[in-house]
Amino acid sequence: MLIVAVAWMFVVVLMAAAEAMSSQGTLLGAFFTLLLYGLLPLAIVLYVMGTPARRRARYRAEVAADAAAASAAQGDGGGLAAGDPLAPERKEP
Predict the structure, then answer these.
(1) Potential cystine with 33: which of 3, 16, 69, 90 (Cβ 3.0-4.6 Å)?
(2) pLDDT surpasses 80 at 49
(3) 48/54 Cα distance (integer angstroms)
(4) What is the pLDDT of residues 68-82, one digit of tens each?
(5) Domain regions of the chain by residue span
C-alpha cells in the first residue's frame, strides 16, 4: 500500500511542477493541484485503509488490559491481605 501512495504523490508532484512551469500556470494553481489531487485524497484513502489495523490494535489493548486486571484481581494466591509495606517508625528510647 505504501508503494501506491509514494507513486501517487510522485505523479501529483510532477503535475504540480508542470502547472508551476507552464506559461499559463501559477504557483497558486500548483499548490492547489498538490493539495486537492495529492494530499487530501491520499490522507482520506490511507485513513480508511488503516481502519482494520487500528481496530486490531484496540482489540489487543483491551485483551491485554483484561488480562492485567484478571491477574491483579487474582493476587498472590495466599488469600491473605497484604501487610503494610513500610516498617513502622521507631521511637528513640
Answers:
(1) 16
(2) yes
(3) 10
(4) 777 766 655 555 555
(5) 2-64
| Distance from C-alpha of 73 to C-alpha of 65, rounded to nearest angstrom | 12
SS3 of the chain: the string is: CHHHHHHHHHHHHHHHHHHHHCCCCCHHHHHHHHHHHHHHHHHHHHHHHCHHHHHHHHHHHHHHHHHHHHHHHHCCCCCCCCCCCCCCCCCCC
| 1/4 Cα distance (integer angstroms) | 5
Intra-chain end-to-end CA distance of the chain, in Å? 76
pLDDT for 6 equals 95
pTM above 0.85, yes or no: no
Instruction: Give Cα 30 distance to the centre of its chain.
Output: 30
Task: Give the pLDDT confidence score for residue 68 in this predicted structure.
Answer: 79
Residue with cell 486486571: 69
